[in-house]
Amino acid sequence: MMRDAQTFEPQDGRLTRPAFWSALGARWTSDIEETLVCCQVRQETHDVKSFFFMSREGRTFSFEPGQFITLELDIDGETINRCYTISSAPTRPHTISITVKRVPGGKVSNWLHDNLRPGASVRVLGPAGEFTCARHAAGKYLFLSAGSGITPLMSMSRSHHELGEDRDIVFVHSARTPDDIIFARELDLIAANQQRFRTSFVCERIGARTNWPGITGFLTLPLLRLIAPDFMEREIFTCGPAPYMKAVRDLLEEAGFDRTRYHEESFSFESLSPAEQAAATDDAAEPADAGGADAQARFSVTFAKTRRDIECGAHEHVLDAAKRAGLRLPSSCTQGMCGTCKVKLVSGEVDMHHNGGIRQREIDQGMVLLCCSKPLSNLVVDK
Ligand SMILES: Cc1cc2nc3c(=O)[nH]c(=O)nc-3n(C[C@H](O)[C@H](O)[C@H](O)COP(=O)(O)OP(=O)(O)OC[C@H]3O[C@@H](n4cnc5c(N)ncnc54)[C@H](O)[C@@H]3O)c2cc1C
Ligand code: FES
Q1: CB of residue 332 inside a 6 A radius of ligand 2
Q2: Number of structural domains in the chain
Q3: 142 and 255 share a domain?
Q4: CA 154/CA 66 separation, integer angstroms
Q5: Are strands 379-381 and 121-128 parallel, antiparallel or unpaired?
Q6: Which CATH number fits the domain that encloses residue 296?
Q7: Which of 23, 142, 166, 345 is the most exposed place for a label (fewest CB within 10 A)?
Q8: Residue 240: inside a domain, yes or no?
Q9: Domain range holding 208?
Q10: What is the pLDDT of residue 264?
């Protein structure tokens, strides 16, 4: 693991480290203080960096391990939102960190790696999300992750460790090669300190290493039975790329695992394949029958920039109608939490029920979240 920590250089006189200790009471929220300042960048692996943030005002952070924040970045004249899980633990409330893997061709992950330096300010929304062990207390956990999907489980592991909880946790992380394992040394340290915390790393191949004592291959049901013979008794949290999560779901289904004790989070943005788009266009001709006179009311939604018009039922979220019509719009949580689907409403009225993904100031300026807005009239959006 490479560790090239950069030191924090304050860029103005307002930010001082001692402010930490005098401000334990004041909590950060994106409504009060919408920017955070990057205070450290840490190289975790060859293509993964952690970015640490603090509040300029010295506020502390309150969140549940596994939750995410949304960064709002201005890149090439465009405002772009992306969600990143908080990889640090809430037990260290003075800073939060995110851990970002470069995605080949990806706009934001590469921009962060190449441009975000200590001292820079970033607009942040959140924390949000329900993928957290804090809401599913259990004596025994199984954490399954692959690639950058390790971040929420790392936050949960760090929390357990720092709280000195005596929970039985088996953490199985899959990576391409041993050199791609994020947080390998820290996980080993936690395992050394906590009697009932065990790690297993499963690597597709050994890469540049000549000696790799871990497992090579892919996670399978027989392998899981070997690593955690009692996995059927555990509360399971899974995070990773879509194919990995499907493989996990399939193997747990084969084992007959109780789905109510299975929790997962996907990092993938929802996007439509050409086949899905074709199917979507067919579906768009047959809007769902929600029943009732009001439910049959239909409104037009005009996307001014792309010059597309779609129809949206009164009881349908605009994002769902747009997807059904084959439009590719940025979205992530689809529950009004992350702000990814935020757009300016040029005209018309919506009924919006968000979960913190938009600030009151933005609502006052005519912004809406399409994933949780139903039309009350014909709409024109600036998209
Ligand atoms: C709740 C949540 C938590 C997350 N937590 C983390 C985390 O902790 N760490 C982390 O690293 N990531 C995390 N993510 C993923 C993160 O939000 C981003 O999706 C990721 O960093 C990629 O963003 P990007 O802008 O770099 O890539 P994008 O620009 O969105 O591109 C993604 C992929 O699509 C391809 N692509 C882009 N545009 C096109 C196009 N026009 N045609 C064809 N292909 C295209 C790119 O080549 C790339 O392969 C999380 C996501 C969610 C939803
Ligand atoms: S997709 Fe997350 S707020 Fe709409």
Answers
A1: yes
A2: 3
A3: yes
A4: 8
A5: unpaired
A6: 3.10.20.30
A7: 166
A8: yes
A9: 133-266
A10: 93
Atom nearest to 371 CA in ligand 2: 4
Residue 340 near ligand 2, beta carbon < 6 Å: yes
- What length does the chain have? 383
Q: Which residues pair with 141 in a beta bridge?
A: 169, 235
Q: Whose CA is nearest to atom 3 of ligand 2?
A: 336
Query: Given a cut of 50, is residue 273 above it in pLDDT?
Result: no
User: Which ligand minimizes its atom distance to the CA of 50?
Assistant: 1
In this model, does residue 120 exceed pLDDT 70? yes
How far is ligand 1, taken at its centre, from the CA of residue 144, in Å? 20
Q: What is the pTM of this model?
A: 0.82
Q: Last residue of a domain, which of 266, 288, 320?
A: 266
Choice from 72, 131, 266, 333 to test ligand 2 binding pocket (greatest atom count within 8 A of CB):
333
135 alpha-carbon distance from chain centroid = 17
Using only the alpha carbons of the chain, give its radius of gyration: 22
Mark whether 262 and 140 lie in a shared domain: yes
Cα 159 to ligand 2 centre (Å):
27
Atom 13 in ligand 1: residue holding the nearest Cα: 84
**Amino acid letter at 253?**
E
In ligand 2, the atom with minimum distance to the C-alpha of 354 is: 3
Choosing from 202, 232, 266, the residue where a domain stops is: 266
Q: Which atom of ligand 2 is nearest to the CA of 330?
A: 1
CATH assignment at residue 208: 3.40.50.80
Which helix H or strand E contains 151, and what residues bound it? Answer: helix 150-163
Which residues neighbour 194 within 8 Å (Cβ) at sequence distance 6 or greater? Answer: 160, 161, 166, 169
Average pLDDT of span 135-149: 95
Q: Ligand 1 centroid to 19 CA: how many Å?
A: 35
For 338-364, the pLDDT digits (tens) are: 888 999 999 999 999 998 888 888 999
My answer on whether 232 and 145 are in the same domain is: yes
Whether 83 lines ligand 1, by a CB cut-off of 6 Å, is yes
Q: Are residues 138 and 176 in the same domain?
A: yes
Q: Is 12 inside any structural domain?
A: no
Half-sphere exposure of 172 (CA within 13 A, CB side): 24
Ligand 1 binding pocket mutation candidate from 43, 46, 50, 83 (most atoms within 8 A of CB):
83
